[in-house]
Every structure is written in C-alpha cells, then in structure tokens.
Amino acid sequence: MIVVVLAVLLLLAYLVVRTRYKKVGPDEALIVYGRRRLVGPKVIGADGKVEGFRIVHGGGTFIAPGYEDYERISLKMMTLEINLPHVYTEQGIPINVRAVAQVKVRATTESTRRAAERFLGTPVEEVTATIQETWRAICAGSSARSRSRPSIATRGRSRRR
Fold this sequence. Notes:
Blueprint: H1 2-20, E1 21-23, E2 28-33, E3 53-57, E4 60-62, E5 69-74, E6 78-88, E7 94-103, H2 109-119, H3 124-140, H4 144-147, E8 157-160
Antiparallel strand pairs: 1-4, 2-3, 2-5, 6-7, 7-8
C-alpha cells in the first residue's frame, strides 16, 4: 500500500515538473512574471531595483505553479512592409512613402526587457501600425528634398513618388 502511494506521489511530482518546466530556443526569450526571485539571476531596472520578472534566453526554467506565469517573445528578424500614401512634409508637400523595415530584438537582457515592456502580448499588426506612425512622424518632420534621397542611417528603402 505504501509503495503504491509513493508511486502515485512520484508520478504526480513528475507531471508537475514536466508541465511547468518551459524551454525556449535560441531565437526566442521567455518572460517569467508573477513574483520576485529570491535566488538566481535577477532583472535590475533603471532605478536599481529588482524587477518582478525574469528573462530566459535560449534555455529552460521552472515556472512555479500558482505563483508565476510566462510569455514568449520572438527574437527573430521581422520584415515589415510600410506603405504611407499622402504624407505631408514640413512644407506641406504630399509624398507617398513605401518602405521595408526590418525589426529585431537583440538577445541582451536590457533589449529584451525594453521590448517586453513595450510589445509583450502585442500582435504583429499593432507593431506594424506603431512603426508606420513613427515613419509618418519622421517624414512629416523632414523636407521633401531630404526624403528624395535614401539615407544610409534609415537602413531601409524609401522612395518618393
């Protein structure tokens, strides 16, 4: 009888560990949130305080049942096509902007923390909309002459029509 109870308890413990141990590949990060870690690596914020989450890059971690939860964030390169018709420059000249933006989160703790704060749980369509509005603001704050020549600093292709 004791052997059966022990076997059942071992099986339950194995199932808990098996279901709560999460692994991530080298092209993604795991954001674990819900409680502050007492031991192990911690995420330190800009104010020097320990954050209430931790970041796992390309590895695995145990998620404490009932205390913690997790979300994945991709570290892959995303290519976004941006089409902004009739953007007005500082001089009031309408231009059409077509661009390709390549977005990637660096696999450093600080970059992943910033990306998680801004975009964790955000659909790709909303990220694309954010980038389009940023491009719209950049184009609106520039002259038509400066937009007619692609800049190396933008690392994208833009054309004026």
